[in-house]
Amino acid sequence: MTLVSDTTVLTIPSAEAQLDDHRRPLLAYCYRMLGSPFEAEDAVQETMLRAWRALDSFDGRSALATWLHRIATNVCLDMLRGRQRRALPMDLGPAQEPIVSNLHTRSEVTWIEPIPGNALAELDPADVAVERDTVKLAFIAALQQLPPRQRAALILCEVLRWQATEVAELLETSVASVNSALQRARTTLATTGASADSVAPTVDENQEELLRRYVDAFQRYDLTALTAVIREDAVQSMPPYDLWLSGRDDVFAWWFGPGIGCQGSRLLPAATANGSPAFGQYKPSESGSGHEPWALQVVEIENGAVKEITFFLDTQRLFPLFGLPPRLDG
């Protein structure tokens, strides 16, 4: 059996390697569709399985990447059928007061989960900023508000820059239907402030210095130093809790009130998460020896200061994914 890829006829052993070359771009695509790195990995595995089983049906009339994205789209649509959309706490209601009685989990909510930057596709330098911005947590959350087929159309056209004719063929619909879906999707995204056209700034020396100051201030739990690096309009959330806080005063009221147990924490740099700096936070162990995992902090910077901090508390799954140790001794 052979596989035709563009103008090259491949034997099955080389076809396996060729399929594997597409894993990372497919993972990024499936993550945008599903909002979870774990589900995205499952979707890619299923895509590869379906592709392998259907090798003899690939005749080379379309590019291998197009064929694989068609399979991946169908896999994602199958996974999304009848399922509630993923969300971040700010998608569910207004900010609340920083008091323990407002701290609730929502069993009916499935949360957006972060993805390590090193899991995503390797890109040309010119495309890196766009890639980073289109996996930002806010953009992923906005995508989840779209019906699945609108979501696929927008990602393929606005992020991957496919032509409407290509997307129409993939979705087995008309170009007019694709353009209509795109218009509705853009209208929905406009209400969230998210856009596939914005470009995230690179982390320069000034931002690296800001992050060093933030880590130092947080580990010392120094209010004055923290005030100097965090914006007055900063936002905090802590999935799987639905509570989110708006404004530096409320964030600090939580940190130095109900969240005082974080005092003495250590922050360990991790791979970037969704294009933003990330740190493993370890709280002092109750045994008095070492530090235990508490949260994956995803820190977003705007205009030279920390704008948003998301504390993802599912350390059992996220710390291994981000290559973070299970505890810190000493």
Automatic annotation (TrEMBL):
RNA polymerase sigma-70 region domain boundaries: 21-86
Keyword annotations: Sigma factor, Transcription, Transcription regulation
Xref: Gene3D superfamilies: 1.10.1740.10, 3.10.450.50, Winged helix-like DNA-binding domain superfamily/Winged helix DNA-binding domain
Family: Belongs to the sigma-70 factor family. ECF subfamily.
UniProt keyword annotation of Phosphoprotein present: no
UniProt key word Chaperone: no
UniProt cross-references to NCBIfam families, sorted A to Z: PRK08241.1, sigma70-ECF, SigX5
InterPro entries in the record: NTF2-like_dom_sf, RNA_pol_sigma-70-like, RNA_pol_sigma-70_dom, RNA_pol_sigma-G_actinobac, RNA_pol_sigma70_r2, RNA_pol_sigma70_r4_t2, RNA_pol_sigma_r2, RNA_pol_sigma_r3/r4-like
Name this protein carries in UniProt: RNA polymerase subunit sigma-70
Biological processes annotated in GO: DNA-templated transcription initiation
GO molecular function: DNA binding; sigma factor activity
Subunit structure: Interacts transiently with the RNA polymerase catalytic core formed by RpoA, RpoB, RpoC and RpoZ (2 alpha, 1 beta, 1 beta' and 1 omega subunit) to form the RNA polymerase holoenzyme that can initiate transcription.
Domain of life of the source: Bacteria
Residue span(s) of domain RNA polymerase sigma factor 70 region 4 type: 138-189
